[in-house]
């Protein structure tokens, strides 16, 4: 593609990831407000996150597959336009069903956008800067946790929560106009048949690795989706204090995502994933005891945020290493299953709140992270066994060749 691509275009693509991430996660910070305003239970309001995650998975996997042969700039712009419509529907929603519809629209278009935008960044960047370009777009999504969610939560204390989505729509309109003017065109490709994609992930190492993704994000989302009512009930946090807590969590999530890349280069994916999952599980189990203290909450959130998102780049690196020739397909399934895990986490969290108590979320979430650790350890074992078998077959083949020569 263009050799002297304008770096501003990559930043614009990252801004798109930022607004889609903000729209997805901001509901967690204003869950109680939405629950009260629409006269539904907190667990019912939590299903706005469940449905969003499921719809996002559809957008990231199915919609990408269906639109693969079409010109990519048009698909990207249509996805952004549809996302704007979803936010406008959310702004005018005075009914739970209408708000749910807006979440579906935003999620499917957002899921399609993030996959196409990440690939776009790789396509338009020079070969030596492709990794950096993709990382920039993904960082935009992570920064939504640092800035978008706490700012949105803070604004909800002074404005009607619906105006958050109007602001997101306004920013996205500006983004749409700039990308329409500056973004170069890219032709579509023939989609990989679904049967071929399924064949790629039949490898037990990949299956157990992807299962880890589900349990990891399930345990995280079970707590994060209900973080606002959890902190309100346990530590008596106001909406302003919750926004500060989310800022701290998001900041250390960002630090964790950057540290994860460094850790993989220095210690490898196996050690990085194992340690980060272990710390993640411990943090959630400890939160059961520290959630009644303001200082305890903030200390635990820093460890939890850093550990959770240290896992992300390390796990992606590991999955790609298993199937380097089919990395896009593996990561596509990982993205889809990650959102299915979010859906299950929000759904199970709602059930726990409905039938037990919200204070049980953290330790139950920690148990799911332990399951994730067990599955990834099994995946490592299978990978090491497979590598040893290949080495043994290679050594045997070399010995046979040596004997035949003699």
UniProtKB/TrEMBL annotation:
Span of domain Major facilitator superfamily (MFS) profile: 9-384
GO molecular function: transmembrane transporter activity
InterPro entries: MFS, MFS_dom, MFS_Efflux_Transporters, MFS_trans_sf
CDD domains linked to this entry: MFS_NepI_like
Cellular component, GO annotation: plasma membrane
Superkingdom of this protein's organism: Bacteria
Localization, UniProt: Cell membrane
Swiss-Prot/TrEMBL keywords: Cell membrane, Membrane, Transmembrane, Transmembrane helix, Transport
Membrane-spanning intervals of the chain: 47-68, 75-94, 100-122, 134-157, 163-184, 205-227, 239-260, 272-289, 295-312, 333-355, 361-383
Protein's membrane topology: Multi-pass membrane protein
Pfam families: MFS_1
Chief localisation class: membrane
Protein name: MFS transporter
Source organism (scientific name): Gracilibacillus salitolerans
